[in-house]
Design a protein that fits this description.
- The chain has 9 helices and no strands.
- The chain has 233 residues and is mainly α.
- It has a single domain, classed as Vanadium-containing Chloroperoxidase, domain 1.
Length: 233
């Protein structure tokens, strides 16, 4: 199929020029920062959010720790599945990169020769952010904000149309949400089995709490045993 935006009168192209025009007016060092953030920084940021959320859940050791950790495992899996789903979409649409059809763009990353619709970066980051939202609302909201900012940067860099990014957001969200019930049904029992393991269970809970619905047995201190002996005497 031909490109989705073929003329400057198209709102998609107009918005592309408006956002990418900011790169022309910005200092060179700022564009380099945006290039790094757009290519690597935001992906790394969402991954760190997932790890941070896992660490927080593990330290608290709540009763629903297993299901939360299962959701955190689902976040990167959802991103991977969404990228695989995008492969036939890209091949069907065959939309060229915007700088190939439109002159005067400030392209911050050279050498992009694959198709443009939909954006892999937007798909991955949003899928992970929505998966994170399933696990934890607070961390998930931060992730979604990062994903939205990442989509803006992809257009700023001149490597995607706005609709490429919107399509990536929609694809990542759809995969993460629609397959979430099945993923949780499969992953939660596995994580609960790991949780019951004496050693591997620390990946789910850091505290020594019972995981089978019974209260954990806490050893008596020396002073408590001494007091009981005194009373018995």
């Amino acid at each position: 199929m031909a490109g989705l935006a073929d003329s400057g009168s198209n709102p998609d192209v107009d918005l592309l020029y408006d956002i990418n025009g900011l790169a022309k007016d910005a200092p060179a060092w700022f564009d380099r920062v945006m290039e790094y953030v757009g290519e690597y920084g935001l992906l790394l940021g969402v991954v760190l959010l997932v790890v941070w959320c896992w660490w927080s859940v593990r330290r608290r050791g709540d009763e629903d720790a297993a299901s939360t950790v299962a959701a955190l495992i689902w976040a990167p899996l959802a991103a991977g599945i969404a990228v695989l789903v995008n492969v036939p979409i890209r091949g069907f649409v065959e939309r060229p990169r915007p700088f190939l059809d439109h002159q005067g763009l400030e392209v911050l990353v050279k050498g992009k020769t694959d198709y443009s619709f939909v954006s892999d970066h937007a798909t991955i980051v949003m899928a992970m952010a929505v998966g994170l939202f399933v696990a934890n609302r607070k961390f998930g909201l931060f992730g979604i904000v990062l994903a939205l900012f990442g989509g803006f940067i992809r257009v700023y860099m001149g490597v995607h149309y706005p609709t490429d990014v919107i399509g990536g957001f929609a694809l990542g969200t759809a995969v993460a949400l629609l397959l979430s019930p099945l993923a949780m049904a499969l992953l939660t029992p596995v994580v609960k089995a790991v949780e019951r393991s004496p050693r591997a269970g620390r990946l789910v809970r850091a505290r020594g709490r019972a995981t089978d619905g019974q209260d954990a047995v806490i050893p008596e201190s020396r002073s408590e045993r001494t007091s009981e002996r005194d009373l018995a005497a």
